Amino acid sequence: MTEFDCVGAGFIILVQLKILVQLKLNPSPPAPLPALSP
Predict the structure, then answer these.
(1) CA dihedral in degrees (6, 10, 16, 22; nearest 10)?
(2) Taking CA atoms, which of 3, 10, 27, 28 is between 20 and 30 Å from 21?
(3) How far apart are CA 9 and CA 16, in angstroms?
(4) What is the pLDDT of residues 10-35, one digit of tens each?
(5) How many CA atoms, within 13 angstroms, populate the side-chain half-sphere of residue 5?
(6) Any idea what DSSP says for residue 27?
(7) What is the pLDDT of residue 29?
(8) What CA–CA distance (Å, rounded) separates 37 from 24?
(9) DSSP state of 26
(10) Cα dihedral 7→8→10→16 (10° resolution)
(11) 26 phi and psi, to 5 degrees?
(12) Which residue blocks in the chain are alpha helix, DSSP H?
């Protein structure tokens, strides 16, 4: 693991945590997934 890999992994974790917090603070009805269902 290089320093860049560590920074990238940390950044991804922070983004995921931010999204989870936003979903918990701003609950919204589940939106239909676009173009994923056959």
Answers:
(1) -170
(2) 3
(3) 11
(4) 899 999 999 888 888 776 666 666 66
(5) 2
(6) -
(7) 64
(8) 26
(9) S
(10) 160
(11) -125, 75
(12) 3-25
Q: What tokens does 36 get? A: 């994923």
What's the pLDDT score for residue 17? 93
Task: Record the tokens describing residue 23, joined without a space.
Answer: 């979903």
> At CA 13, angle to CA 23 and CA 21, rounded to 5?
20
- The first and second tokens of residue 6, run together, are 């560590």
Per the document, the length of the chain is 38
Of 22, 1, 21, residue with least CA distance to 10: 1
- Residue 21, amino acid: V
